[in-house]
Amino acid sequence: MDHFKGYPMPAIRTDAHFGDRLVRCFVQRPHSFHAMLEAALARNAQGEALVFEGRRWSYRALDAEVGRVAAGLAARGVGRGDRVAMLLGNVPEFVFVLYAVQRLGAVAVPVSVREQKPGLHYILNQCGAKLIVHEAALTARVPDALDCPALLHRIAVDDGVALSEAVAPVAPGDAASREGFAALLLHGALMQAAAVEAEDTALILYTSGTTGRPKGAMLTHFNIAHSVMHFEACMRLTHTDRSALAVPASHVTGLVAIIATMLHVAGAVLVLRQFKAADYIAQAAAERVTQTILVPAMYQLILLQPEFEKHDLSAWRVGGYGGAPMPVATIDLLAAKLPNLILTNAYGATETTSPVTIMPAGDTRAHADTVGVVVPCGQVIVVDDNGVEVPRGATGELWIGGPMVVKGYWDNVEATAREFTAGYWHSGDLGSIDSEGYVRVFDRKKDMLNRGGYKIYSVEVENVLMAWPGVIEAAVVGRPCPVLGERVHAVVHAPGADLSEAGLREFCAARLADYKVPESISFSTAPLPRNANGKLMKRLLREALPA
């Protein structure tokens, strides 16, 4: 079934890539990440590329800034294949450095600003980063040179923090240079891009694993090209679109779905330091934002703001979301309040360079329990524990293939062999594909509950809890039980809502099989813990359960 019939879809053919993978590919596609900047400059040089707190850059101005940063990095020995770490939040320098690294044919390694010193130490050594650009306020987290011998240069972006105050004392024997960002801009401009191959690594993104060390997924130019083209075609994006970056720039949604996709279509990115619902509404209205991707809880917070009705958000036409189901009540309220907005679920992961599925326009309400359909060049199969494909409609683990699937993990042969089979990445998600091609994601394989032999998919229970008015977030985890193995426990974030444990349990009992009804519920005054990709960190919820 062609769910994207009538969309502006480029021609597709099957090619061999990454050695032995046969994948469906767009015939005409950008050769590299940097080629997208060159194309945007040729197409929309005077058009707005970047907006941040009142400052604006056209594509021509952005290109000049990138040239200066690239020259500074090159003067410090950064060249093709070198790794450049970026400990930066949502600031313009993130974009400047990202594109400059691509101009040099080097590899950008964005790291969440939430990462602490031990994790950063591991990442820098594991990828062998030669240079790091970091926020001055985070200088204390950057390991000493003795701990990271390959790290030769540290560049601090001064954002209201005096560099002399922010830079930690130099340790004895620490020969690594420490400089301010302005020092990068003293070497003229480098405008010529280095030659790269499409299958070269452009980015290394470290997965936020719940156990063990994080793994560095290698996103290639080829992967990125297909992901941005999927967003362009399936969301019908053009150079007139303006996207709001309200999720972290350092993670795959912000980096690929917003920054790289807007670069590809030569649109504009409104960079927001952080998401605050009231500020988001005001800035999205003032900047005439047309598209963004948020997590469902953000939409609910937007609707709860008293200022919502005061601002004109009529330009907002594409509302992407992922990381959690969108409550039907929220879908209906958004349809009433913002009739021009098309809600679009998008499911993906770091290892898939973002989208695996996208909801066709107009299907969200009728297929609210799904994550849409597989993107045009993608492939998804559902397999059992033995890797055998199950019949259509049956539940199993989702294995994902296609040109957007990364080639593996940086310097980690064992993890690559374990998590990839013939080009398919083992997602760890339990789901199914129905007869019409809509994909459902029920639970993480490790998060499925087993209550006395009965399997319980937490997302089903969470959807029911989210239907209660005022519930912003809900998570279901297993409480250990010596008799049944696990019992159903729910954690609910519903500030100001009129609810009780007994009332919620009664509400669930009318809509779920008895063994699925939460046997205990705790109420959280704070938002539930999420990683920077917006996914619930259920491990932390389980650890917080009373004995």
Plain-language structure description:
With 547 residues, this protein is an alpha/beta fold. The strands form 7 sheets. A 9-stranded mixed sheet has the order 4-3-13-12-14-15-16-17-18. α1 crosses α7, α2 (59-75) packs across α3 and α6 packs across α7. The radius of gyration is 23 Å and the shape is globular. The model is unreliable at 160-173 (pLDDT under 50).
Can I get a quick summary?
The chain is an alpha/beta fold and 547 residues long.
Secondary-structure topology with pairs:
Layout: E1 12-17, E2 21-26, H1 33-44, E3 48-52, E4 55-58, H2 59-75, E5 83-87, H3 92-103, E6 107-110, H4 117-127, E7 131-135, E8 153-157, H5 163-166, E9 177-180, E10 201-206, E11 216-220, H6 221-234, E12 242-245, H7 252-265, E13 268-271, H8 277-286, E14 291-294, H9 296-304, E15 318-321, H10 328-337, E16 342-349, E17 354-358, E18 373-374, E19 379-383, E20 396-401, H11 413-419, E21 420-421, E22 424-433, E23 439-444, E24 449-451, E25 454-456, H12 458-466, E26 473-481, E27 485-493, H13 501-509, E28 520-523, H14 538-543
Parallel strand pairs: 3-13, 5-6, 5-7, 7-8, 8-9, 12-13, 12-14, 14-15, 15-16, 27-28
Antiparallel strand pairs: 1-2, 3-4, 10-11, 16-17, 17-18, 19-20, 20-22, 21-22, 22-23, 24-25, 26-27
Helix pairs in contact: 1-7, 2-3, 6-7
* Sheet with most strands: strand arrangement: 4-3-13-12-14-15-16-17-18
**In whole angstroms, how far apart are the ends?**
50 Å
Total helices: the number is: 14
- Major β-sheet annotation: 9 strands, mixed
Shape: globular
Mean pLDDT: 92
What is the oligomeric state here? single chain
In terms of per-residue confidence, which ranges show pLDDT below 50 for 5 or more consecutive residues? 160-173
The assigned structural class equals: alpha/beta
Number of strands: 28
| Percent strand | 25-35%
Spatial extent as radius of gyration: 23 Å
Q: Percent helix among the residues?
A: 25-40%
